[in-house]
Amino acid sequence: MKFTEAQLPGVVIIEPDVYEDERGWFMESFNQKRFEEGLQSLGQPIPKPFVQDNQSCSKKGVLRGLHYQLEPFAQGKLVSVSQGAAFDVAVDLRTGSPTFGKWLGIELNATNKKMLWIPAGFAHGFLALEAGTLFSYKTTNFYSKISERSICWQDDCIGIEWPELESYFINEKDRSAPLLSRADLS
């Protein structure tokens, strides 16, 4: 596995080793020891163990996010796409961070097989670029409805450059999310 520090401190792009032959391909999608060694090689802290796996399937144009959870249920997420493609986004919400409010976007898809490690303290969201996009999340904490928060996906102060599609499908909760300046961060 190849671990590369992203432009936002703490966020890491992970590229698994993929072995192909006449039958197709094989890859190790997760290995705790390699994950920890890869983060340590970049000077990143080892997160809490993963406790929950989630999957979603989205139509083309579905935008989910930008979501996060407050302490004590803040989540680190290891995300990937096993079918289709998504533009994945992380936004730094760590109070006092020199990159507070900055964002990172990367395409995750079934072809490049890249994964993104997003530590606790970041909001997360994605835009499905293809129909039937299967998105997987490993999280370091359990989901807590009372701790769940979101920020506006089109906040001009953050300035995310979402890919242009014919239409976006966004649920009411995400459409009515507050701007970062009004978000509950504690």
Structural key phrases:
6-stranded antiparallel beta sheet; mainly beta; globular; 5-stranded antiparallel beta sheet; 186 residues; 2 helices; single chain
How would you describe what is shown here?
This protein is mainly β and 186 residues long. It has one domain: Jelly Rolls (Sandwich). It is built from 2 helices and 13 strands. The strands form 3 sheets. Strands 1-2-10-7-12-5 form a 6-stranded antiparallel beta sheet, with helices on one face. A 5-stranded antiparallel beta sheet has the order 9-8-11-6-13, with no helix packed on it. Strand 1 and strand 2 form a beta hairpin. The chain is globular and about 50 Å long. It starts with a strand and ends in an 11-residue tail after the last helix. It catalyses: dTDP-4-dehydro-6-deoxy-alpha-D-glucose = dTDP-4-dehydro-beta-L-rhamnose. Homodimer. Its EC number is 5.1.3.13.
